[in-house]
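Lecture notes, part 5. Sequence design as translation. It can be helpful to think of inverse folding as translation between two languages: the language of shapes and the language of residues. The source text, in structure tokens, appears below.
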């Protein structure tokens, strides 16, 4: 892939991640909002491969830290760089790691069939949840059971549904593109 095309797909992945973050539903019983961001992180990562995926997520975090409103809108969560150390910082900081894992697996052919595509994205989702829940437990709830109750339990079922949808998209897209 030529360098301008690589730059373009990275910018597109950043824009899609930022757009997905805007589809937010605050939940009254947790500081963590429901967003479409994890699905987009995983889908773009599988499409881009590990290096470009990590690059896109690092740029997303840098742009958000600089104060550009790319993170999920919130009246309770801190803006800009403070978001990275706020209650949802663990999820955000896990995006590049999840992007690498999902992209690495996809680069090894896991993105070509539904089940392996879903497995790669579920591994990435597990990384995002591990980062988010561990951060919540360490910095907010000071309790792993409370962090699981507020940062995993309300989201896991819907996020698995989002992964199932994303995993169905990618193999079909490769067939259409002829890769």
């Amino acid at each position: 892939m030529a360098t301008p095309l690589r730059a373009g797909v990275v910018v597109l992945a950043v824009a899609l991640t930022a757009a997905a973050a805007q589809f937010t539903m605050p939940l009254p019983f947790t500081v963590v909002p429901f967003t479409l961001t994890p699905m987009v992180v995983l889908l773009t990562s599988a499409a881009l491969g590990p290096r470009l995926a990590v690059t896109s997520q690092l740029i997303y975090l840098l742009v958000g830290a600089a104060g550009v409103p790319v993170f999920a809108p919130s009246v309770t969560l801190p803006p800009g760089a403070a978001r990275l150390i706020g209650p949802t910082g663990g999820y955000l900081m896990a995006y590049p790691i999840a992007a690498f894992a999902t992209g690495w697996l996809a680069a090894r052919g896991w993105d070509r069939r539904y089940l392996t595509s879903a497995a790669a994205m579920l591994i990435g989702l597990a990384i995002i949840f591990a980062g988010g829940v561990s951060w919540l437990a360490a910095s907010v709830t000071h309790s792993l059971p409370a962090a699981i109750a507020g940062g995993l339990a309300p989201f896991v079922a819907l996020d698995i549904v989002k992964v199932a949808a994303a995993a169905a998209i990618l193999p079909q897209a490769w067939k259409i593109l002829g890769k």
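The translated text above is only one of many valid answers, since several sequences can fold into similar shapes. The chain is about 70% helix and 0% strand.
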